[in-house]
Amino acid sequence: MSKKMKHYSSKAADNGHGSRWGSMADAASVNKVFLERARKALFEAGLSALGLLAANPGVSKLLLAEQLNRGVSAIGLAMAIYEEAGNAGMIRDVAKDMLIREILCAFPNGWVSTDSVHPLVKLGFWDDDVRLNVTDTDAISHSRQILRHLTIDNPPPDGWRPQTQNDPTIDDLFDRFWPLQS
């Protein structure tokens, strides 16, 4: 490798912040752009994030972002959804809805426990969305317990597909691991 190329490679790997991926401020700036794009697209479509969910039961966040068709990413849409849910005091209900959507997307032909990609990996984005977009540490702990129980400790039978509302398996998971606040 030439001296010039070696210097460039080390600068690219470090980018001046001591981190290969940049600073936390860089990540926050990117997240802000994603969220603003989602808010703008929802506004232009005349929808709220929770209204978009209600009008499209069972549709994945990726397809919802594509339907908005205004440069919206699934990440930004998830941010807007959880922001609205937090403002409305509906984090648990929205997390349940988003888990069902993630399962239907990850397992279009029904649950499969013995696939080349483990269910925990397939559903990890759901937990990431909760962890990254919800500030309540109890909610984050609840989502992790639900994911572990669903994918490792007590997975549903192969072929299972959750109902978009009032699914007994999902309702039981949330009742056990994410109880309603009294």
Task: Give the structure's gist in a few sentences.
The protein is mainly α. The chain has 10 helices and no strands. The protein is globular.
The stretches of 5 or more residues where confidence is low (pLDDT under 50) are 1-21
Q: What's the N-to-C terminus distance?
A: 64 Å
Molecular shape: globular
Computed structural class: mainly alpha
Can you put this structure into words, describing what you see?
With 182 residues, the chain is mainly alpha-helical. The protein is 66% helix and 0% strand. The N terminus is likely disordered.
Features:
182 residues, mainly alpha, 0% strand, globular, disordered N terminus
Topology:
Layout: H1 3-14, H2 24-45, H3 49-55, H4 61-68, H5 74-88, H6 91-106, H7 119-122, H8 124-133, H9 137-153, H10 168-177
